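Fill in residues.
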């Protein structure tokens, strides 16, 4: 008989401990900033203040068969590898003849540092672009004339980090 009275009390106490153990930060909110991506803007090589869209640009991670993205734009958002000190992308454009494409491969070199957000979200990676930020692993550039680091610290996605002139 005593067992029947104690069982609900033990269950109630267990539920109280379970509920009180949860904290507000046990849920990582969607608004919490995650690892930022590299923001690249495309500019006209003859008028460096003017944006210039690339028509049907396809971006591939080097070694990947499927394009990360294919679009016509003057702004690109590219993820950087968190487990490496560099990321390589191939930028392919359709040439004036529909059957040919031209492309450049760029290697982005960086250092990574982690920021602790909170217990539920963990860490997010931030990047500092090296002074020798970009290199052409292939011989010569084809459609990219030059590039410029605008902001070397990749810690948010509100600012342009890199300008590519074509």
């Amino acid at each position: 008989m005593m067992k029947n009275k104690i069982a609900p009390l033990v269950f109630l106490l267990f539920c109280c401990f379970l509920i009180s153990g949860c904290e507000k930060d046990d849920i990582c909110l969607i608004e919490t900033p995650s690892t930022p991506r590299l923001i690249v803007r495309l500019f006209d090589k003859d008028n460096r203040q003017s944006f210039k869209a690339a028509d049907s640009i396809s971006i591939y991670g080097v070694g990947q068969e499927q394009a990360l993205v294919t679009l016509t734009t003057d702004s690109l958002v590219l993820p950087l590898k968190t487990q490496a000190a560099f990321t390589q992308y191939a930028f392919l454009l359709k040439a004036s003849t529909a059957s040919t494409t031209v492309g450049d491969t760029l290697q982005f070199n960086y250092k990574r540092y982690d920021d602790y957000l909170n217990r539920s979200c963990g860490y997010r990676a931030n990047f500092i672009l090296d002074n020798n930020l970009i290199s052409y692993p292939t011989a010569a550039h084809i459609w990219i004339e030059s590039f410029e680091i605008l902001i070397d610290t990749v810690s948010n996605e509100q600012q342009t980090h890199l300008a590519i002139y074509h």
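The chain has one domain: 25-165.
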